[in-house]
Each structure stands twice: as C-alpha cells, then as structure tokens.
UniProtKB/TrEMBL annotation:
Domain Circularly permuted ATP-grasp type: 87-465
Superkingdom classification of source: Bacteria
Protein name: Circularly permuted ATP-grasp type 2 domain-containing protein
Annotated InterPro entries: ATP-dep_Glu-Cys_Ligase-2, CP_ATPgrasp_2, UCP005522
Length: 489
C-alpha cells in the first residue's frame, strides 16, 4: 500500500510484489469481500487494538488454550497459541469447490488403504510401486485383512492447502494418522465472538461449533455390530503430549471419557475401562496415541502409553479404532506424488484439487535434478510433521545445502522436494510492531468419514507464519492462527 494511504492499525502496509495478498490488491485497494471488515478494523486506534489483542491472549491463557513443543528445554513448558483477530474470509462458492475436492481426496485415500491391506489391486496394476508402500515405516503388516466397520480407515483427515500466487489452491499434504488443530479452530471462533461480538454478528458466517457432535456421530456410526449402547472414549498419551489440550477439549465437548492407556485393559479380546463401579466395556476409541505406542504386545514392547492386547480386540471386531492403525503409509509425502493417479484409479475422476509438483529423490533423474537445483526447492522428509527437518533452498546457507545433500544421498527414500511455492499472504497483527503486516498463510481443513456419512467443517485452521519472510506456519516453528470465515450464500 502506498505511503500514507493507510491509517491506524494498518500503518504503511507493504505487499511483496511476488505474493498474492488475500486482503489487498497490488494496487493497494481492499478486495471486495474484505471491505466491510476492513472498515470496522480501521475504527481502532493502535492503543485500542493492542488492548483488545491483550484481552484475547488473556482469554486463551485463562481457558488453558495452550500447546507445548517436544524440544522445549524446559519440559512441560506450555505456550499460548498465538491468535490474530483479523479473520480470513472464504466465499461460499470458493469453499464449495474446496469441499468437493477434499471429500474426493479423502474417499480415494480410504479406498487406497483398504486395497493395500487386502487385495492390493493398485500394486498389481503397477499404478503405485509396491516398494514405495512396503518401505514406508508406517505400513503395518498387523493390519492385513482387518476389515474395520463400514470399511472406513481414515475417519478423521486433515488436508493442508495453500493458495498460490496464481490464485489456485494446491494440496501440500494429507494428514490421516492423528491430525491435530481442530480445538484451535473452535476456540478461535469463541475468542472472536467474545472480543468482537458486535462486529461478528453483522456477518453471515458459517458455524464451526457442530464439529464435536459430528465427530461423536462419526464414532457412533462405526460402533461394532450388535452393541446396543456403545461406550466411546478418547485415548490420550497424557498431559505432557503437545496436543493434550485438544484431547481434553474434544472429550469434554462430546461428553465422553478422556482416558489414558492405564485406564483401559483387555480381557478375552474385549476392551474395558476401569471405573469406580467396576469394569465397563469400551466399544469405540478415538485414539490420539501413535501407532508405535498403541499396543506393546503388537508394536513397541517398551510402550507404557497404549493398551496391551487392544490390537487383538480390534482384529476380532470387538472395538473400533479411529483412525485405523497403519494409515500413515498413505499420507507419506512420497505417496502424495501418486494421489492424482490414485483418485483416477479408484473413482474414475480427474482430481479437483491440484498437487504441488514433487520430486522423489528415490528416482534417479529426479534425484539428480534436486541435487543440482536445491537452492530453488523445498526439501522435506517424507515421514516428519510439525515443520521439522525442512530445508528452504533460497534461504539456506551453502553449508546447510551441503549438509542436506549428504543427508539425502544417505537415505534417498526419506526425502522429496518441491518448488518454492508463493503462499498467499494475509494482513496479520504483529506484536512489537503494533500494526498489521502481510504474513504467509495456509489452511488445514478437517474431514470426517463414517458409515454412510461424510462431513467437512466449513472453516479450518488458517495457520500464519508470524516470522517475517518465513514460509513455515507450524505452531512448533513459531506460527500462529486466524479464525477462518466461510461465508454463507
């Protein structure tokens, strides 16, 4: 925005020319769907908005809306999840297209997982290389021939999207092991209403508060056959897990118990919960414990987080697990490169949402390209999350690039590379500067699949790279979030 054109909290807002700003055009004009909310925010002085921002932060702290990071030097240190009061707006028409593409992708992924653990047609037809699947550390032979209720494996999916400078959405990755972040979507909306109630009620925004009941309905739809009054629980690793707040929040809002592994036991291939009134049979478990630690009798024998024997109960069909163990091979970032083919194979449809061009370092010609062009690429490990282990070529030193070349050469299966995408930017309040500046954003959407039902939450977690010039939006890497408004027609 030109010098002196902006006032108040928007200061001298400057849009980097190579990026797409969702709020302002390159000419400095406010984009139409933001005009009304922009006028409202322009009424705040810097001092008023700082006070409002502090109020929102205190609200998060008082509600316990925090997260922790595993590499904190002080173990157990909790942080407030940074939240920006200026919302991200998505039109009804734009969202309808996104929702259609997200469901298409999640349904195809479910069929893919089902096929891999049964007939393996897609491997026999050589659409996806068999060695790519069997070399994934998240492929689990223990899941072979297990048939979950209604054939659903990825009950809860998180799809990460970016909006590129060309105005199109691209899928960055699929998350179908234990996708997190939904509690921040819900609490962001509560904070927004509390802080800016008069402003919020003037806009026709789709609700997000139905998610806990939709999740419970999904759990109910996949209860084992023949159970008259199923018992549902959320299984957490415990209070030191980085997403413990979310586990507790969802259990509370669904009205079901939050349990740890030590609260459950298996007897005669049935799962029971310890209660003051004696054992109570458990039928459906929304588990937030990673596969490796879920059952020490089947996986890591040193695990104290899981439930010994629960995989035996699952194999017998006496308990349902959400998500199914072993889904992780399907959200491997190398398998991601085959998603367009997977969609065409199972659904006989063209993909609605775009993939980002991706190079598999395992393939000789692509490995050579990556090694020669690393300064133009983002390098990612295929099995990490949280923004860890990533190299952004144009921001890395020669020493860092040299180190990564060695890492890749030692384990080519572990790494993929993608062009450096220009994530869209969004006006974000920066503490210390006390004004709005453009910051890169992405979007994690949340999808539920159950027996004869599917649901995509109208809204999602818009994650913000708070560090100037950063493309990493993860909270563990210093990112924040925004409330995402999907407008009604």
């Amino acid at each position: 925005m030109r010098q002196g054109e902006a006032r108040g909290v928007f200061g001298n807002y400057q849009i980097p020319p190579q990026f797409l700003d969702e709020v302002f055009s390159n000419a400095g004009k406010v984009n139409p769907q933001y005009e009304s909310i922009y006028r409202q925010f322009m009424q705040f002085s810097k001092e008023d908005f700082k006070e409002l921002n502090e109020h929102a932060k205190k609200s998060f702290f008082n509600q316990g809306i925090t997260f922790s990071v595993y590499n904190d030097k002080a173990k157990g240190l909790e942080r407030i999840f940074p939240f920006d009061l200026f919302p991200r707006i998505i039109s009804a028409a734009e969202w309808a297209r996104l929702e259609e593409g997200i469901i298409q992708r999640c349904v195809a992924l479910n069929l893919f997982i089902q096929d891999i653990y049964s007939t393996k047609h897609i491997l026999k037809d050589k659409v996806v290389p068999a060695e790519l699947i069997f070399s994934s550390k998240n492929y689990m032979k223990e899941m072979l021939d297990i048939k979950p209720v209604a054939g659903v494996y990825n009950h809860i999916s998180g799809t990460d999207l970016i909006k590129h400078s060309d105005g199109e959405y691209y899928v960055l990755e699929d998350n179908i092991r234990c996708p997190s972040g939904i509690s921040y979507v819900l609490t962001n909306r509560v904070a927004m209403k509390r802080s800016l109630f008069q402003m919020f009620k003037e806009f026709n925004v789709s609700t997000v508060q139905e998610y806990p009941q939709e999740l419970l309905a999904t759990m109910q739809s996949v209860a084992p056959d023949g159970v008259v009054a199923p018992t549902y629980v959320v299984l957490t690793p415990g209070i030191f897990n980085s997403a413990y707040f979310e586990h507790a929040y969802l259990a509370h809002n669904m009205g079901i118990p939050l349990v740890e592994g030590r609260d459950l036991f298996v007897d005669n291939n049935f799962v029971y919960m310890k209660t003051i009134n004696g054992p109570q049979k458990v039928d459906v478990v929304y588990r937030r414990v990673d596969d490796e630690f879920l059952d020490p009798m089947a996986f890591n024998p040193k695990s104290v987080l899981g439930v010994p024997g629960i995989m035996g109960a699952y194999r017998k069909g006496n308990v349902s697990l959400l998500n199914a163990p072993g889904t992780g091979f399907a959200d491997d970032k190398a398998v991601y490169t085959y998603m367009p083919d997977i969609i065409r194979y199972y659904l006989d449809q063209d993909p609605i949402l775009n993939n980002v061009k991706t190079y598999r370092c395992e393939k000789e010609d692509e490995y050579k390209y990556v090694m020669e062009n690393m300064e133009k690429l983002v390098i990612k490990p295929v099995d990490e999350s949280g923004g860890y282990g990533i190299l952004i070529g144009d921001r890395a030193s020669k020493e860092e690039i040299s180190e990564f070349k060695i890492l890749i050469s030692q384990n080519r299966r572990k790494y993929i590379a993608q062009p450096i995408m220009s994530l869209s930017m969004h006006a974000t309040f920066i503490e210390g500067e006390d004004c709005f500046e453009p910051r890169c954003v992405d979007l994690r959407t949340f999808t539920l699949l159950g027996k004869d039902r599917s649901f995509v939450l109208k809204g999602g977690l818009s994650r913000v790279a708070l560090k100037k010039g950063s493309l990493i939006v993860n909270s563990s890497q210093g990112g924040g979030s925004k409330d995402t408004w999907v407008m009604k027609d």
